[in-house]
Amino acid sequence: MVENPATALILSSVFIGLNNFFAGLIVRPQLLVGSFFAFPFYITPGQYVYEGMVTSLYKGSPKIVTADVGGGFFEYLVDTGVCVPQQPEPCQGTVSDFIDVFFGGVFTDDHISRNALILGGILILTRVLTFAGLKYIRYN
């Protein structure tokens, strides 16, 4: 609801950048939750889409992931006794465990219903605001 297309494009780019940053795509969500950036993390619609996609696709998956030595997933597998630090064969775990470690337990499949409701609310709100903007705002 801005006057010229150039301003609309700039605002769209800013929104997309903020959405990507606070959705957990660029910065892991466990670093955002409980910090100053928790508020933008929770109001960003991309976070709910990304969490739903990741958890519904990979949670409970029996597929195998090879851990890099010294990485967070490797340390998790050593701590849980799945791997031995100096073993010659690669250290492997499940995708489900990798998702838990990578996202610090913030993304869980228990949130899928909540995410759908929040996204539905955001969709309804944007439709109402779009209708109101088209009906009442005139640039002559």
Question: Which structural class should the secondary elements be placed in?
Answer: mainly alpha
CA distance, first residue to last residue: 13 Å
> What is the averaged pLDDT score?
88
Number of strands: 2
Q: What form results from the Cα inertia axes?
A: elongated
Number of helices: 7
Helix content: 55-70%
- Give the biggest beta sheet: 2 strands, antiparallel
Low-confidence stretches: none
Order of helices and strands: HHHHEHEHH
Rg: 20 Å
Structure description:
It is a single chain. The chain is mostly helical. The chain has a domain at 63-105. It has helices spanning 5-22, 29-32, 38-43, 45-58, 72-79, 95-102, 112-136; strands at residues 64-66, 92-94. The chain has a two-stranded antiparallel ribbon with strand order 1-2. Helix 4 (45-58) packs antiparallel against helix 7. The two termini are 13 Å apart. The mean pLDDT is 88.
Map the helices and strands:
Elements: H1 5-22, H2 29-32, H3 38-43, H4 45-58, E1 64-66, H5 72-79, E2 92-94, H6 95-102, H7 112-136
Antiparallel strand pairs: 1-2
Helix pairs in contact: 4-7
Short key terms for the protein model shown above:
140 residues, mainly alpha, 59% helix, 4% strand
Brief account:
The chain contains seven helices and two strands, in the order ααααβαβαα. The protein is mainly alpha-helical and 140 residues long. Helix 4 (45-58) runs antiparallel to helix 7 (112-136).
